[in-house]
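User: I'm writing a tutorial on reading structure tokens. Could you give me a worked example: one chain, its sequence, then its tokens, then a sentence or two explaining what the tokens reveal?
Assistant: Sure. Here is the example chain.
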Amino acid sequence: MAKGTLYIVSAPSGAGKSSLINALLKKFNLDDSLRLSISHTTRAPRPMEINHEDYHFVSVEEFEALIARNAFFEYAKVFDNYYGTSKEIVMDWINAGKDVLFDIDWQGAREIKKQVPEAVKIFILPPSLEVLQHRLIKRGQDSSEVISKRMAQAMSEISHYDEYDYVIINDDFDTSLLKLRSIILSKRTELANVKEHDGHILENMQKEAKAYEEAWLPCASALAAALAAAKAEQPEAADATAADATASETATVEVAATAEVAATTESTEDAESSAPVAPAESSDNSATV
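And here are its predicted structure tokens:
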């Protein structure tokens, strides 16, 4: 079975990464071909977050036990909390032909890229640091101390954007969502991926095209010969047509000339017949009374 593609998506906190990923999965994943890698974390759940849907929330002891078992694709400690992605779950999805999204920081992205060189890396940027700080404050989920830490971390995160394959500046959410989707669609339509996913269609089409070409080739040769013969006959036909036209024109001129002569003769005869007759003169020898 054809394998899926692994997409690494990174961004500073507040850039809109999670919102974009969630909207992508909700609006453009009707065929269930795209999965989100759900990370394990030791941080406390935020309001509205659901265990095993947003994160696998575990204790520090549980997380460190998973580290000892080499159960993570990658893991890191951020803001005194562990984050990690299950290796087994992700590889099962990839091998089943699913595209998988990784929501991780630049450090995790580096580690994943080492293990999966064909992974596609996408970085989400805010339009400015001022907008980023405003978003963090407006979110109302963190204290001022945590927000300050997040802004400091954002500086470090943003400095690594040039390690990524694609960069999206999230100044308009809908536009950024379409850009994120277009990256995935572009990757799926690369020739190598089409061959891997729909190789049977390409093979059948090639066979049909070859069979059609072989059946059509003799007909095409005969048609080409017929067209060449017709083209060769065209000058003779043109000469004959020109000769006919000349003869016709000559005949027309002769007929016109004959008609003109006849008309002139007839006119002369009419003029002579209509002239008056003079009276006869008296003879000199006539008797005088």
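What the tokens reveal: Residues 191-273 form the longest helix (83 residues). Helices lie at 17-27, 60-68, 87-95, 106-115, 129-139, 144-158, 173-188, 191-273.
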